[in-house]
Amino acid sequence: MQRRDFLRTAALLAGLPLLGGCRQVLGWGLPIDVFRPGMAAGHRLRDAASLPPPRGTRRVDTVIVGSGVAGLFAGWRLAREGYRDFVLLNGPEPDGNAAGGAFGEWRYPTGAHYLPLPSPESAHVRTLLAEMGVIEAGGASLRPTFDERVLVHAPDERLWRDGQWQDGLLPRGLGADDDAQQRRFLLHVKQLQQQHGTDGRRVFTVPTALASTDPAWRALDRQSFASWLAAHGYTAPGLLWYLDYCCRDDYGSTLAQTSAWAGLHYFAARGGHAANAEDGAVLTWPDGLAPLLRHMRSRIGAERQLPGAAWRIQMQGQQAQVDYVDAGGAQRLLARRVIVATPLHVAWHLLPSMRSLGFERAHLPPRAPWLVGNVLLDRFPQEPEQSTLAWDNVVYGSTGLGYVVATHQLIRVALPERTVFTTYHAFADAAPDATRPWLAAAGADALFELATQDLYTVYGARLRRHLLAARLTVRAHAMASPQPGFLANAGLAALRAADGPILFAHSDLSGLSLFEEAAWWGDVAARRVLG
Amino acid sequence: MRDRLLILSVFVVASCGLAYELIAGALASYLLGDSVLQFSSIIGCYLFAMGVGSHLSQYVKDERVLDTFIEIELLVALLGGLSASALFAVFAWSGESFRLMLYALVFLTGAMVGMEIPLVMRALNQRQQRFAELVSRVLTFDYLGALAVSLLFPIVLAPRLGLARSALLFGLSNVAVALWTCRVFRAELVRPTLQYLRSLLVLLVLGGGFIAADELTRWNEKAIYGDDVIHAETTPYQRLVLTRWKGDLRLYINGNLQFSSRDEHRYHEALVHPVLGALPWARRVLILGGGDGLAAREVLKYPNVQQVTLVDLDPAMTGLFARSAPLVALNGGSLQSPRLRVVNDDAARWLERHGEVFDAIIVDFPDPSSFALGKLYSVPLYRLLSRHLAENGLAVVQSTSPYHAPRSYWSIYATLQAAGLATTPYHAYVPSFGEWGFIIAAHRPGYTPPQAYRVPMKFLDREATRQMFFFPPDMRRWNVLPNELNNQILVHYFEQDWSQVIR
């Protein structure tokens, strides 16, 4: 042992009182930053504070309001088709749920972190990926070839149960009945992947807009996933935990809260294949989906992206008028068409005329709050001998959704000297209305404890040795939860059909918060603008 | 006077007590890693054991206080003094029971040490010392002893004497206290002669141990590495151990043999010359890995090579091979050559971040024994590599053994092809490794092995080269899949291959 190491250890020991079992120890002395993207601007809008008169007016053919996936995709499509006369308002939450950040050179996601292999129906996403070079060949084929750097590297998933890791997320060793039910369920959804409705379309597709409208299958939306599972004899606790985890992870809701159609959609709609990866592989980058957004932004061009948050959108005769606020005060845009690419609860406050389009407040989809934690680590915590750190690491039975390793895709001779673990927590168990005030007021320590609960379960207090900093992102209105009946939402149908001066583009229109859905509605809106 | 000496013995006893604790902690973090955990748990266990010892001390009868004190000293001397050597031996010879032994030893030593101070205090108390003064003096010297050793141990003893000898030295101090107590308090002891004899016996054992400690340590490391360890170093990246046995130098990284000086020339000649012998015009050469400078030694034999860039992560490794005399003799001082540039960076990251193009690239990465290392044998890495390779240049990749690990070898071959490179496989017999394999990669097919070499060599000539490119029937190509990062099949192949070789 080196003398230096010894002295450092001795100093550490002198500074650290006995390491008890208390969880707070993880946060001691750690710089923790809390971000609540969009909260201040959103609440000002909700509280209808008054706006000073606009200082300038600019005319443009099309305005895109919002810079999440839908807005950027719309802009990308317009730019790709050679359409130039548009601007995009970044809004208070640039990149929306696909945003990322960085601790120096170490990037991480602050929202979504992967994209499934695009299904044959997701031609719009495939076009984007091919343009980026992520699809290297066969963009229109059943099995395109993907850039391996982006295909999730092995080992991709593991599950912590009873103090041990197992490969994959489906819990094993819970008895023959559980195993049998798991196999039966997987076979069941595999059949559903090929299930077609009476109209000849697949029953479950991404984007959902291309799914069959066969009422016999749509009837699944009238019950919860939990009751569908019970009716089909799926009772094994391991299987039910896994399905509940999937619903939380994708929709922020529990089995009982999720529409059976949406629950099955998660498994049956992902029909993507790759020439150089197994089915079920996903695409991921160190900072989640942010590189896709960077690419779309570069195509759109910086000159068309305006800082500032929309305040009011209304018709002035034949013209749509968008008032917004930026650092210089209030501004006005006059446009032939406006693509409202904000979440609908924001659109509700921006557009006094929502009702005239057939959309009522009751049509607003329920939204789940999320907490995304990013912790910067100095070297990697020691893993048990028989297991290797995977990309996605989940704790069985936890209310957390596990953690993802941001450096997983790096190709290195030695482990990188630093890494970022991203933890996810969906607040599915309490009513969102009760969770939000807590999230708005919660201190850094309380949020940190919640964000690191799975890390603490797995690594215990020894993780503290590796922690350098933490950044917590609170997304209190993160995503629409597809509750039973969401497919029959007449208000959403009206907005999806809107083809006047005001168009809508957001995954909320599908009721599912997926990249492909957001991109689809951005694409549809752009095509309507292009005519 | 006697009392004062008794107080002085408190100083020695306290020093020894803390020393055993530090030695156990240092040894555990040295062998097991995670030093905070090791130190915390050992200190905790030790302090608790001291409490148990203090508690037990009440059962010692008043008339036997000094006798028991001597017996305890001798026991502590044996347990503590031999602790480091014993633990090291257990670790070397039977890894499993190490933790059990460690905590058992720590507990026993702690319990004995815990009895010492109460016994001394009782001895002094019997001699009608004023209680307030007694407590104050005993504890003062107790803490002073702790201070002395906590400074002495990390700064002087551990680096100079090593852990085994430091422990033995403290054991001898305990014996000295026992002997001295026997002498001074002879009249008050119940069985003075017996205590004398015992003390002398322990003195003999520990003294012998102290003299033989080096031999003992060498014997233990021999159990781990088989040979004498002439250098051992734990860097932030890896553990480097250099052994020597009758002129055979061996380097182990994390316990895996990297080379043996007996036959490394075979490996490095086979790695370098089929490529450089075929590129008489090569000026710029890149070596990835190979921080031992041995591949560089072969490359620098070519006068046409103007600049060699060697990218190796660990500055400790390249530093060791640039300075240590026997190693410099081995690599011919290649790392000090003005034609060589050492870059201490992760080779894969360096490839990503730099755009230089080379006439020859020599890839000597670790075997694909883990998911992290398997990524170095992938289409994205080979594409990256090919971007650094001149239009007519050649790259060579160390590719495991086509004989012992045929799935792995041919999977690497298929992966290079999947990356769009033209490949030529070959192999050489390296006694330390067995039959070893390499693959030459180029932008275009048409590679032909050199017919003759212009540089001096021990292993390769025209006929040996011809044989390297011939694959006999038991080493024919296997039909295996290229490595894809999504499934890392190469890592599974590698495990499968070697699990059949090693029993």
Give your account of this protein's structure:
The complex is a heterodimer of chains A (531) and B (503). Chain A is α/β, with parallel strands linked by helices. Chain A has three domains: 21-38 and 367-480, no CATH class; 51-91 and 307-365 and 482-530, FAD/NAD(P)-binding domain; 115-151 and 157-280, no CATH class. Helix content of chain A is 31%, strand content 22%. Chain A is built from 16 helices and 21 strands. Chain A has helices at 3-15, 39-46, 69-80, 123-132, 176-193, 215-218, 225-231, 237-251, 260-268, 290-300, 344-350, 432-441, 444-451, 453-459, 490-497, 515-530; strands at 32-35, 57-65, 86-89, 100-103, 106-109, 115-116, 135-137, 145-146, 157-161, 164-167, 282-283, 305-306, 309-316, 319-326, 329-340, 367-378, 392-395, 403-405, 418-426, 467-480, 502-504. In chain A, a hairpin with a 7-residue loop joins strand 17 and strand 18 (403-405). In chain A, helix 7 (225-231) packs across helix 9 (260-268). The radius of gyration of chain A is 24 Å and the shape is globular. The termini of chain A are far apart. Chain B is of the alpha/beta class and 503 residues long. Chain B folds into two domains: 2-226, Growth Hormone, Chain: A (Up-down Bundle), CATH 1.20.1250; 264-501, Rossmann fold (3-Layer(aba) Sandwich), CATH 3.40.50. Chain B contains 16 helices and eleven strands. Chain B has helices at residues 2-32, 35-56, 65-93, 98-126, 131-184, 192-225, 264-276, 294-299, 315-323, 325-331, 347-353, 371-374, 379-387, 406-418, 462-468, 489-501, and strands spanning 228-234, 239-245, 248-253, 256-260, 284-289, 307-311, 340-343, 358-364, 389-398, 422-430, 434-442. In chain B, strands 7-6-5-8-9-11-10 form a seven-stranded mixed beta sheet, sandwiched between helices. A four-stranded antiparallel beta sheet of chain B has the order 1-2-3-4, with helices on one face. The longest helix of chain B has 54 residues, at 131-184. Chain B is elongated, with a radius of gyration of 31 Å. The chains are: A alpha/beta (531), B alpha/beta (503).
